[in-house]
């Protein structure tokens, strides 16, 4: 009898431990299935629209040239969106597989942020959003205060994604009527910090959007995740924040997000020097 009980206990423990061991594989498989489904959905919609416009152009070849022009412009926009989506998927695939090459060089992060801000300035003005950069100069000021080892193109893409995200969610048309007197703004701050005796660079990107519910914060860097599924990003692939996190990870940094409903969201990036 004692032997039977021992066998049952050992069998139960084995079954329990096997379940624990296979759980990460099960979770990974479910994540892969969800990612594949989301990617297929994102690809299928523009392809279907392109097909519809091409079929209409072929069926009504003698239609008004202005109508044909509009159809071609729709096709052009959708092919650009598809190209962006495919490029984003390839970037993440290379990052996941460890094949993403980083062209490391010593670069001035302050100059990089100034360049990104200038590139986004027109978009901000079109949306009536105040876009600013504040560089906190350390006490021992010198030319190399904000230099780090990294990939210029990847870091530029990282902060472009974060600032674009802030501009999108601070868009003045999305503000509540009672808050119309409040100026929509995206503020970027760069400062040098010391943590665990190591010098690091910290960049904050703060917006005045409607904020993100607390339950959604842990999912913001998931691929294709939408805080509000009924509100699709205009022209984006839904991968911007996932790519931002991948770039930070590739530079051995950290990224975190905090948000307050109806007040805004702050993304904080910390990069080693």
Automatic annotation (TrEMBL):
Keyword annotations = Kinase, Phosphoprotein, Transferase, Two-component regulatory system
**Positions of the Histidine kinase domain:** 38-273
SUPFAM superfamilies named in the record: ATPase domain of HSP90 chaperone/DNA topoisomerase II/histidine kinase, Homodimeric domain of signal transducing histidine kinase
Q: Reaction catalysed by this chain?
A: ATP + protein L-histidine = ADP + protein N-phospho-L-histidine
| A biological process from GO | cellular response to phosphate starvation
Which EC number(s) does the record attach to this protein? 2.7.13.3
PROSITE patterns in the record? HIS_KIN
- Origin superkingdom: Bacteria
- InterPro entries documented for this protein: BphY/WalK/GraS-like, HATPase_C_sf, HATPase_dom, His_kinase_dom, HisK_dim/P_dom, HisK_dim/P_sf, Sig_transdc_His_kin-like_C
Q: State the Gene Ontology terms under molecular function.
A: phosphoprotein phosphatase activity; phosphorelay sensor kinase activity
One cellular component term (GO) for this entry is: plasma membrane
Q: Which PANTHER family match?
A: PHOSPHATE REGULON SENSOR PROTEIN PHOR (PTHR45453:SF1)
| Protein name as catalogued | histidine kinase
Originating species: Crocosphaera watsonii WH 0005
List the lineage, top down: Bacteria, Bacillati, Cyanobacteriota, Cyanophyceae, Oscillatoriophycideae
């Amino acid at each position: 009898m004692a032997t039977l009980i021992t066998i049952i206990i050992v069998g139960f423990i084995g079954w329990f431990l096997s379940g624990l061991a296979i759980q990460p594989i099960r979770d990974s498989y479910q994540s892969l299935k969800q990612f594949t489904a989301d990617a297929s959905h994102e690809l299928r919609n523009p392809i279907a629209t392109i097909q519809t416009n091409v079929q209409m152009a072929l069926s009504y070849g003698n239609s008004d040239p202005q109508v044909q022009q509009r159809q071609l412009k729709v096709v052009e926009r959708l092919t650009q969106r598809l190209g962006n989506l495919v490029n984003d998927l390839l970037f993440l695939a290379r990052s996941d597989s460890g094949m993403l090459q980083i062209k490391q060089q010593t670069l001035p992060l302050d100059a990089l942020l100034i360049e990104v801000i200038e590139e986004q300035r027109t978009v901000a003005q079109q949306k009536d959003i105040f876009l600013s950069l504040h560089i906190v100069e350390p006490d021992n000021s010198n030319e190399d205060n904000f230099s780090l080892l990294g990939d210029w193109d990847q870091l530029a893409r990282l902060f472009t994604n974060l600032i674009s995200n802030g501009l999108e969610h601070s868009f003045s048309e999305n503000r509540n009527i009672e808050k119309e007197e409040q100026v929509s703004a995206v503020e970027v701050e760069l400062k040098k910090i010391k943590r665990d005796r190591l010098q690091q660079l910290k960049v904050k990107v703060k917006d005045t959007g409607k904020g993100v519910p607390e339950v959604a914060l842990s999912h913001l860097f998931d691929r294709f995740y939408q805080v509000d599924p009924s509100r699709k990003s205009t022209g984006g692939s839904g991968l911007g924040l996932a790519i931002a996190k991948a770039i930070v990870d590739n530079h051995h940094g950290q990224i975190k997000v905090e948000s307050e409903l109806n007040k805004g969201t702050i993304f904080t990036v910390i990069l080693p020097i």
